[in-house]
Write a structure and sequence with these properties.
By secondary structure, this protein is mostly helical. It has 3 helices and no strands. It is rod-shaped.
């Protein structure tokens, strides 16, 4: 298919770009959720909060919610 302009080309690709963005967002949210679950288990094991932050990359405030 040939497009008359770059704008038409961009608009034709937009639904695919939106879908890719949705997948990327879902992946990041899933990774964050797994990190939170791990952090909660580490807290239950009485591992130091600073160590949990260093290992998971999460912020203290997120872990303590």
């Amino acid at each position: 298919m040939e497009y008359k302009s770059e704008y038409e080309r961009a608009m034709a690709l937009k639904p695919y770009q939106d879908l890719l963005n949705a997948f990327d967002t879902a992946k990041r949210e899933g990774e964050k959720q797994v990190g939170m679950e791990i952090a909660q288990k580490m807290l239950a094991m009485e591992i130091d909060l600073k160590t949990i932050v260093r290992i998971t990359g999460l912020m203290e405030e997120m872990i303590l919610q």
